[in-house]
What does this fold into?
Amino acid sequence: MLIKLNKNKFAAGLIIFFACVIGSVIAFFFASAQQSAEKNYIKWFEFNVSEKALEDAMALDIETYDMLYHISWTDTLAYLACKNGNNFSHYKSSDIKSMQEKLGDIYTVDDLMKDNKYYAFYKEAFSAALGGILGEYEKQAPDGSGGKKTVSGYGLVAYSPIAEGFSYSHYDDFGNSRSYGYRRQHLGNDLMGYVGTPITAIEGGTVEAIGWNQYGGWRLGIRSFDGKRSYYYAHLRKGRPYAEGIELGTQVKAGQVIGYMGMTGYSTKSDVNGMSVPHLHLGLQLIFDESQKEGTNQIWLDVYNLVKLLSKNRATVTKSAETGEYKRKYDIISPDYPETLQKYFD
It folds into this structure.
């Protein structure tokens, strides 16, 4: 009787043991699958679009905006990337005309590319990179008699980081070697100019980083309102690097003066001109998952051709005789911007 009882206990123990093992295995695979799904985001993307491809795709976007079938420039660029392996070095305007011919009665690029396994990836990537560049606008403009008028339309709503009337030069220096502190790549575009040149926000967003950094000197980090882009403006002016009212958490408008060009950085001591030439270091980071912001899988874009495109839209600024501060002259009107931002404009 005792032997039979022990056998029953042993069998029951085995059943419990295997149930626990199976349960643990199922829980492990479920957790792994859930974690994998949560981390299913874009971890790398190269922005290789030529200036001409940007111009042509933008022109088609604007041309078809009020038509029945609007062709977004991000869809066009995604189509081209699928066709050229994301290599725009041999791009020709006829490539977009060929796409339009293929659309025919299909109407949308999404329908045309529905069977291409790379299209969704490129569409998401280009949409994130260029999400704040084109759109509807309502803004002030000169009326021809020294006053202001309100104009509206669809087109470039992002601005050059260099205010109108201030000269600068740049070249494609993305990926070049840097050695201060440690050997690394240059993850931005340097715009050479003069100390005190007003720097304007490329698009609206929230100041998420401000202050001294030994590499970037006085710098600003501004996150787009949709959270997908983080703009990095570095080496700002010694002594007075930022425009009035700019602080952590400040919301800014596209084209708003945010700071002044300088040559600070490359020093563990703050407010030091460690650079040899005045310039703005401009960086653009894409963020598909918040872990990318400061952690692994950071995505920095080569913005050289984008900066060239944005040179077509530069903010007019005026200087205060009392404070020496610059402000944007013509306001941009949008429901995305709170009324509290009005104080930063004349």
Residues 237 and 292 are 29 Å apart (CA to CA). The chain has a mean pLDDT of 88. Residues 2-38 form the longest helix (37 residues). Helices lie at 2-38, 51-63, 73-84, 93-103, 109-112, 119-129, 304-310.
